[in-house]
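Quick look at the format.
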Amino acid sequence: MSAIASNASPRTANAAGNDHERHLVRVEETLRSIMTNLPGNRVLETALHHHLDAGGQRFRAQLCIDASIALGISEQAATAMASGCELLHNASLVQDDLQDRDETRRGHTSVWAEFGDDVAIGLTDALISSAFAALADVDDHTRVAALVKIAHAAVAETVAGQHSDLAFRESPQQTVAAYLSIARAKSGPLVALAMQLPMTYCGSSTSLTRAGRAACAFATAYQIVDDLRDRESDRATDGNPGALNLIHLLEALDVPEPTANAVAIAEDHLAVCRFAAPGLPQGIGAPLLGQANVLEDTLRRLRHDG
């Protein structure tokens, strides 16, 4: 992903691409070092590397890096904020797997399944704490308070979304509107944070709401794509209530052609993303728009397959 403007020269584009990769290497080093040299954390360090070895696109880190480069933010601050975003995202993954009792992630055993519930809880706490420590590493310490506050707000909304997800499964009043609200709260805030942190660092607070709108719409569409892919594995079985899945909900509500309806809902959210993202400062919404186009292609294939 790149936040380079369309009129950038090849030399400028290449330089920004090199900056992006260098920043991303520093982020990866930060992720893997958070338990290093801390006494009594050998099990947590092993669990951390087990989790990170499962892979991942580091999408939020990349989004944050591209936004930072476009806004002219220093490498030190850019990698600190990108590391914070990625640490919080990975904390949410470890916790989700634990609460949903998912035994695998990307073909690897999840942390709780490999090391137990207590280790998963401890690693979640450590990842969140490390995220705020990473934000403190920006080179302008006068901006740390503002960054911490907006990161806390994103965490609080994400936690509330996960709680609503768990409660929704037991609720007799399940609606599409409730599903969309939960999907937005669970997935959107940490994607939005990847753009909102650099904007906050630069004092571009007037566009924070627009960034949140674009990111949350994209994240909701992404969740629906996951539901389409996981419609069978998410189904309830004996002793397993199943995961929150839009396809299953539409089937339960007797909505005709649930796959086609789910695709249409996802496309509506991508349209919101495409409307909001271009208005962000210095073209920082361009990488998100690129990912929206990729997601649109995926939806076309899923519509055909469904």
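Next, a different chain entirely:
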Amino acid sequence: MVSSSKFKPEGHNSVAPYLLVKQGQRMIDFLRAVFEAQELERVSGPQGTLRHAELRIDDSIVMLGERPEPKYHASTHVYMADVDLCYERALAHGAKSVVAPRDLQYGDRTAGFEDPEGNVWWIGTRRAG
């Protein structure tokens, strides 16, 4: 087990819920009104869609992104020291690939897989500060 937190952004826990929604701004407004969430990050996609957002609720982060017709409505995001190794271990233990490891523009290396029970996991390693 790696004790260093250099693989995740400052102020983030290793594990966070990731909501997949049709209307991102509506969900952000809901989280703000109900939980007094503070928006930390927003990444826009094509035609003004919300590709990714992060909100802080007290000491925790909730992530979300818009999907026109989400197959899943929630998943789990885990920051890991080595995305590629974790992804390979998941596949070796019966997981199905959702997205192979790749580097994204905001500085994370990410991947996704579906576990044998049908839960979706997104894993990431922060590569840029």
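Strands lie at 15-21, 38-44, 50-57, 60-66, 74-79, 96-103, 108-114, 120-126.

See the schema section for token definitions.
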